[in-house]
Design goal:
The strands form 7 sheets. Strands 3, 9, 10, 11, 12 and 15 form a 6-stranded mixed beta sheet that branches. Strand 22 and strand 23 form a beta hairpin. By secondary structure, the protein is of the alpha+beta class. It is globular. Helix content is 47%, strand content 11%. Among the domains are: 31 residues; 53 residues; 57 residues, no CATH class; 179 residues, no CATH class; 31 residues, no CATH class; 146 residues, Trna Endonuclease, Chain: A, domain 1.
Length: 972
């Protein structure tokens, strides 16, 4: 048996078939025969034909009925249609439709169409008035500064009297934030100096280092994107080009509503939307720290400090008046490239940022609306509490797998809606809101926001003119996903229910999967898909939207009953918006929601980890910045693809090896530093670099279980894709526990076992690393990992006399790093300097907090003298403090207790009372290991002084610096 493509011979037909399928998929797919002498009528085709016949009969079509059905059926012959019309099943379908009749749903535009809610409206408004008066009393007690309470009280009184509160509200935030809304200047980009290519390579690298460091301080994500090549380079377009394109897009008037609207079924409860806001709602919806300020320049950090009562007065004024000031509806739009080197303004994505005040209010409103309205079951985009991306990816893969395994025909069409968020009709949004039962007060508020919105483009350090937004919703507004999803719900509701892919479960058909504007259509036949296309195009046109055929594609799988195979049939073509869409072949791949797919399901994930590591390695940045990029950006960017795509354990292990190799190179860690030190979390002494081979399988399992809890309409085995299982580990926490237990079981990691007790012991490896130089960070990590060179460490795994490993300074002890740093007489001076440096930091901290400080007081006892490092006083109390930097042979708290017991005697306390004149005396031991790990009891005792966490971190850094200095001087 010889392969006709590569002439390779096989001993069996089965072996040859497997070879052709894997090595030559195109030729194998071409060999599958799906043509039939007599095409059978699928249930979907019969349902559609019965619908058309019933409709034509009601319209009075008699003589040319069969001819009209031939035209609608898409390729069926007249004899074929005559034959199916004679069957009993078909006659029953037509009879059922004729008996049911045609009762189209009409518009109910009047608000009193379903009952009256005047009493309910009165209740929620009265509740708002009550809470508003209470908050006004609270705010009035705050005084005029710094919260300008008088303006808030004036605004509250205005809205209670049914007057416009805009004036006092604008005066309030102008006074509080000391700026006019929309007046914050944007820094100029300045002129390029044209010196990027001048100088030697070292000079250019230094110049680039400075640029990245400045960018890192202001926008860390932008700096990382520049290093990783994330496609952030802007194209050659000028502000004029951008303004011309986007103004023409936004300022076009919304197309009028052209379709029938679903009948109002029930009114949304006003109390669920406009009831008084709770403290939990306000605090739980705060914009995240670090997010951008709007045109008014109010930062999230500033807004957080505004009292809760003031925020609630503001939001309740918005609720009761039904409008927000027009200044809040002005926004800034940044244009983000969709691809590297965009050639036209249309290749950018507009992200609009409004005031943090409006974003906060709309986030609360969006959460409430999500609780009173349920989106279409086919829509999973931006819905709270739902893993929409995961569910859609898994369902799509399961559908393809089901079609392949059961050898059922399936037609898939991916539709790209052109500029969906930017061009959706405002009239469509308002009409759909009315049809879904939204109350008039809410509709008026949304109408006010839509019709008064405006924006300025932000481009290359400049702002455009004010552009009126006559259509579209703003990407970046928390309310936009809800409004857009409602419009898409209308489009999805128009799809014919009898068309779709049957999963095998009774009554379950899939005809669409939607993630916001990302739409997949499913049918069991070509004619079924054409009916779906017609319905979608009609629904989108009613909403002012249209399909972009250039970015759409189709996929057709047809079974071969004789060969028991399924063929990717690229001969089946469809037209959308008057143009043909690309038909996928067996060798074509595509991405759906960021996950690689092929015609038969999810494909192997191949993130560019190695190429990204090379770019990080070549970048002129600090070692700790390289580590931070890998830990927080590079690897997390691959999680989505690795968790939802196909992945092999061998690939995960290979990427782990590459990452560890880079980390060892950047930090100068020897090959025998345990892998668990690199992967264990900061808290447990490691560097917190994710270990893909352990974590990805766990994440896959956890995410699968979460999706399966919502899965009711498909078999569990169709969840999609092979999942790498890890035996013996039950949870992510157990995986992490295995990492740090392995680390503590090593000689080099034994000293780190108490690291988790105090955050200051490990914070220098994360956020605290930004204040360290690259050299210091590498030194600290090597010291912390216990991998600094010594005779004992170099002799691991080798034979030899123990005497040959004694300290080279002449000590009769083994030469270890601990001995060199803590015991050897040659480093005694360094240990004293380290100790005094820690004491000096504490002295400064106590003096700043107005403690009385006595240093190295000599206290005479009956037989000896003691000299505690510090005696501090405040009020009627004195404390004896003594600092020690120790080797953690015993538990640190035990060592701390011994030191405390040395000074915690009646004789010493009496001497301190006599010295300070204080009645109450206490003892505090300050214990930290030479690797910078705090005794937890020491930290608890120090909290009484309220020194702050930063002083604890400074002491750790000073101890590490002193310990490494001891080792360095010993080696000179």
């Amino acid at each position: 048996h010889v392969c006709e493509v590569c002439d390779r011979a096989f001993s069996s037909v089965t072996g040859l078939g497997l070879h052709r399928k894997r090595a030559h998929p195109v030729q194998f797919n071409q060999g599958i025969v799906v043509d039939r002498v007599k095409r059978r009528w699928s249930p979907e085709e019969m349902e559609l034909l019965a619908d058309w016949e019933a409709r034509l009969t009601r319209e009075g079509c008699r003589g040319d009925l069969i001819r009209r059905l031939v035209g609608l059926s898409g390729g069926r012959t007249m004899d074929s249609i005559k034959g199916v019309r004679k069957t009993g099943e078909y006659k029953r379908l037509v009879a059922a439709r004729m008996a049911r009749g045609d009762s189209p749903i009409r518009v109910q535009s009047e608000d009193h169409a379903v009952g009256s809610a005047s009493s309910a409206e009165a209740r929620w408004e009265e509740e708002l008035r009550t809470i508003l008066r209470q908050d006004m009393e609270v705010v009035s007690r705050l005084g005029p500064a710094p919260w300008a309470a008088g303006y808030l009280v004036e605004a509250g009184e205005a809205v209670l009297a049914s007057r416009d509160p805009t004036g006092p509200l604008v005066q309030w935030w102008t006074e509080v934030f000391m700026r006019e809304l929309g007046s914050t200047p944007i820094p100029s980009e300045g002129e390029r100096r044209g010196q990027d290519e001048l100088g030697t390579s070292r000079q250019r690298r230094r110049r680039l280092f400075g640029e990245i460091q400045r960018l890192w301080k202001t926008d860390r994500r932008a700096a990382v994107s520049r290093i990783l090549g994330g496609g952030t380079d802007l194209g050659p377009q000028s502000l004029g080009d951008m303004e011309e394109y986007w103004a023409a897009l936004f300022e076009v008037e919304s197309s009028p509503w052209q379709g029938e609207t679903e009948q109002v079924v029930e009114r949304w409860a006003m109390g669920d939307i406009f009831s008084p806001l709770t403290a939990d709602e306000i605090t739980g919806s705060m914009p995240a720290a670090g997010t951008c300020a709007g045109p008014d320049g109010i930062e999230p950090g500033e807004w957080v400090r505004v009292p809760l009562a003031a925020k609630r007065i503001l939001f309740h004024c918005f609720m009761m008046w039904g409008e927000v000031p027009s200044q809040l509806l002005e926004a800034e739009t940044s244009l983000i490239p969709k691809t590297a080197g965009p050639a036209s303004p249309g290749e950018y994505r507009p992200i609009t940022v409004a005031s943090v005040i409006l974003r906060h209010y709309h986030k609360i409103l969006a959460r409430r609306l999500g609780q009173v309205y349920s989106h279409s079951p086919n829509q999973r985009g931006f819905i709270s509490g739902m893993d929409g991306v995961g569910e859609n990816v898994v369902r799509f893969n399961a559908i393809l797998q089901k079609a392949r395994k059961s050898r059922r025909s399936i037609v898939v069409l991916s539709l790209d809606v052109a500029k969906a968020f930017d061009t959706v009709s405002h009239e469509a949004i308002l009409s759909v809101l009315r049809a879904k039962g939204a109350p008039l007060h809410l509709r008026k508020y949304i109408q006010s926001c839509l019709r008064r919105s405006s924006l300025r483009l932000k481009w290359r350090g400049q702002r455009s003119r004010l552009i009126r937004v006559a259509r579209g919703v703003r990407q970046g507004d928390p309310l936009s996903p809800f409004l857009f999803n409602m419009v898409m719900d209308h489009v999805l509701s128009g799809l014919p229910e009898r068309v779709g892919f049957w999963t095998g479960v009774s009554g379950v058909r899939f005809n669409a999967l939607a993630y916001a504007d990302d739409l997949l259509l499913f049918a069991s036949s070509e004619i079924g898909m054409r009916s779906l296309i017609s319905a979608v195009e009609s629904g989108l046109a009613q909403c002012g939207l249209k399909v972009n055929p250039a970015k759409s594609w189709s996929l057709c799988l047809n079974p071969s009953g004789r060969q028991k195979l399924i063929k990717v049939d690229s001969e089946v073509r469809f037209q959308v918006a008057g143009s043909g869409v690309r038909a996928l072949g067996i060798a074509d791949g595509f991405k759906y929601l960021g996950v690689p797919f092929g015609p038969l399901g999810v494909q192997k994930a191949e993130p560019e980890i190695e190429a990204a590591l090379y770019r990080v390695h070549r970048a002129p940045i600090k070692p700790q910045q390289r580590l931070e990029i890998v830990r927080e950006f590079l690897l997390p960017a691959t999680y989505h693809e690795l968790v939802l795509g196909q992945v092999r354990r061998e690939d995960l292990h290979r990427w782990d090896v590459r990452v560890r190799g880079c980390v060892r190179h950047w930090l100068r860690l020897q090959h025998d530093v345990p892998n668990s030190y690199i992967h264990a979390p900061f808290k447990y002494g490691g560097l917190a670099v994710p270990e893909l081979s352990r974590m990805v399988p766990m994440w896959r399992r956890v995410r699968r279980e979460r999706i399966m809890q919502r899965w009711e309409d498909m078999e569990a085995e169709e969840i999609g894709g092979e999942v790498v299982e890890v035996t013996g580990l039950g949870s992510i926490e157990e995986v992490r526990r295995g990492q740090w237990e392995d680390l503590y079981g090593r000689v080099d990691g034994r000293d780190l076992r108490e690291s988790a007790k105090v955050k200051a012991s490990y914070s220098w490896k994360g956020e605290g690393a930004r204040s360290l130089s690259g050299r210091e960070y590498v030194q600290f990590v090597r010291l912390h990992a216990g991998c600094l060179p010594s005779l004992m460490r170099a002799a691991r795994g080798r034979g030899g006399q123990r005497g040959a490993l004694w300290c080279r300074a002449g000590c009769p002890r083994a030469e270890t790093v601990g001995h060199v740093v803590q015991v050897c007489p040659l480093t005694m001076g360094g240990r004293i300097l380290r100790h005094h440096a820690v004491v000096g930091l504490l002295v400064k901290a106590f003096e700043i907090r107005r403690y009385g400080v006595y240093q190295e007081v000599s206290i005479a006892l009956r037989e000896t003298r003691v000299r505690p490092d510090l005696v501090v006083t405040k009020g009627n109390k004195a404390w004896i403090l003594d600092v020690q930097v120790v080797s953690p042979g015993d538990e640190l708290n035990v060592i701390n207790a011994r030191k405390k017991g040395k000074y915690h005697t009646r004789e010493i306390h009496n001497a301190v009372r006599e010295l300070t004149g204080k009645i109450e005396v206490d003892t505090v031991a300050i214990t930290i290991s030479w690797k910078g790990i705090w005794s937890s009891q020491s930290v608890r005792d120090l909290r009484e002084f309220k020194l702050g966490k930063r002083i604890l971190e400074w002491i750790v850094e000073r101890v590490l610096r002193g310990s490494h200095m001891n080792w360095s001087r010993w080696n000179k």
